[in-house]
Automatic annotation (TrEMBL):
This is OLC1v1035931C4. The lineage of its organism: Eukaryota, Viridiplantae, Streptophyta, Embryophyta, Tracheophyta. It comes from Oldenlandia corymbosa var. corymbosa. It is a multi-pass membrane protein. Belongs to the NRAMP (TC 2.A.55) family. GO terms for cellular component: plasma membrane.
């Protein structure tokens, strides 16, 4: 009986290995298309209303001069995002799950809370952007649009019941709707190709605020919740447990993410080109000049309508609606994985969605009712600053785990990738910390609405918190990994030698 059992096990293993060989040899476009989807969901972080507002302001202030920052930033983003995808493929776990197993509760719970705050902060511009779009298209008040976003997003997220691929298809469709709308805007403004190319490939910073705008553009290109999301989305694909299959999957996800981010890059270029071309016109009306001096998601539509016509404004509103709705969907989706990973908490998807959406809608609704569209626009800027603050607490764990033999085994990043990714990660974190500290100090010095004693009191509270912030980041950076994750590619190595 023992002999028969052994032969059955051997024959079963042989069948598994042969099946695996067939899967690995199949390759080609059909195999690649199975991996298409996660990159487009992730690319929306670079197309959300907060990023669009930053692009509009950069174009209005400096024309095409800062396009090279977008190009450089999205190359950086591709490297960081590919690390998140590789982590999920190679370990079979997503980033928040690995954080739960690696860090003690005293670290894990604050990391979870910060990740949730990042999701909510990213959600606020998406809610407001969608509300602005509904206001432009249907002429409803912004605060009513805020309420509508909650209902519409929850309905769209209901597509998850039909499978993640359906949701990915919807998001991909919305990305191309955005692309079509903004490329349509380009046909109205017809920017000079030579100046566009110069802006992309010739680094230049002129003017007093150019450096600050460049820092804002770079800082907006890494979204903390996006790293958790990407490492989780790749787990929806079945990857055979062999080194070759895992390497192929990592390569497919890299190509797919590269294409999705290239589309995102083109859309960002189109946004900057439109605002830059319009605001550089010499015969603008005084009202248009005023709009260009402080361009927001709301004022952009009036500028386009006055300068280019009503159709241009409608295209912009449709693009903004697609941006807000699609980004809101991915943000809620990221929140699900973050809660499940950090807390191992299984709650019904619709309950989780309602909680997340309500937390994002409440501040947006209050500001929209009290301060109107201008206050809502300022809330987007505040949310962007919070996201900048959050970056180290997702980037550092990702860089640590990706370069760890205990987590990645033989699939850990090469030395060159480790060095490059750490340089990029530390550079982005340094830029954001510098931007936050300098802005806070300037506000503290130049704001005359606060009494001197009030400024001293705020400084006494904030500067120690900044010291704690830097200390925790350094702790995460130099803490030794304690948990070993078994290698996913643990089958017979003969499958890698055929």
């Amino acid at each position: 009986m023992a002999g028969n059992g052994t032969s059955v096990i051997k024959s079963s293993m042989d069948v598994d290995l042969e099946t695996q060989k067939l899967v690995e040899k199949r390759g080609g476009w059909r195999e690649f298309l199975k991996f298409v989807g996660p990159g487009f969901l992730v690319s929306l972080a670079y197309l959300d209303p907060g990023n669009l507002q930053t692009d509009l302001q950069a174009g209005a202030n400096y024309g095409y001069e800062l396009l090279w920052v977008i190009l450089l930033g999205l190359v950086f983003a591709l490297i960081i995002q590919s690390l998140a995808a590789n982590l999920g493929v190679c370990t079979g776990r997503h980033l928040s799950e690995i954080c739960r197993t690696e860090y003690p509760k005293i670290i894990n719970y604050p990391l979870w809370l910060l990740a949730e705050i990042a999701v909510i902060s990213a959600d606020i511009p998406e809610v407001i952007g969608t509300a602005f779009a509904l206001n432009l298209l249907c002429n409803i008040p912004v605060w009513v649009g805020v309420l509508c976003t909650g209902v519409s997003t929850l309905i769209l997220i209901g597509l998850q019941r039909f499978g993640v691929r359906k949701l990915e298809f919807l998001i991909t469709f919305l990305v191309f709707v955005m692309a079509g709308c903004f490329f349509g805007e380009l046909t109205y403004v017809k920017p000079p190709a030579k100046e566009l190319l110069m802006g992309m490939f010739v680094p230049k910073l002129s003017g007093n605020g150019a450096t600050g705008d460049a820092i804002a553009l770079l800082g907006a290109l890494i979204m903390p919740h996006n790293l958790f999301l990407h490492s989780a989305l790749v787990l929806s694909r079945k990857v055979p447990n062999s080194t070759r299959s895992i390497n192929d999957a990592c390569r497919y996800f890299l190509i797919e993410s590269g294409f999705a981010l290239f589309v995102a890059f083109l859309i960002n270029v189109a946004v900057i080109a439109v605002s830059g071309t319009v605001c550089l016109e010499k015969d603008l009306s005084p009202e248009a000049v005023q709009n260009c001096s402080d361009l927001t998601l709301d004022s952009s539509s009036f500028l386009l309508k006055n300068v280019l016509g009503k159709t241009s404004s409608t295209l912009y509103a449709v693009a903004l609606l697609a941006s807000g709705q699609s980004s809101a969907i991915t943000g809620t989706y990221a929140g699900q994985h973050i809660m499940q990973g950090f807390l191992d908490l299984k709650i019904k998807v619709w309950i989780r969605n309602i909680i997340t959406r309500c937390i994002a809608i409440i501040p947006s609704l209050i500001v929209a009712v009290i301060a109107g569209p201008s206050g809502a626009g300022q809330l987007i800027s505040i949310a962007s600053m919070i996201l900048s603050f959050e970056i180290p607490f997702s980037v550092i764990p990702l860089l640590k785990f990706s370069s760890s033999s205990a987590k990645m085994g033989k699939h850990k990043s090469s030395k060159s990738i480790i060095v490059i990714s750490w340089i990029l990660g530390l550079g982005i974190m340094g830029i954001n910390v510098y931007y936050l500290i300098t802005n806070f100090v300037q506000w503290l010095i130049h704001d005359h609405s606060l009494a001197k004693i009030g400024k001293i009191f705020i400084g006494i509270i904030v500067f120690p918190l900044m010291a704690v912030y830097i200390f925790v980041a350094i702790y995460l950076m130099f803490r030794k990994d304690n948990v070993v994750i078994p290698e996913k590619a643990s089958l017979d190595t003969t499958t890698d030698q055929d």
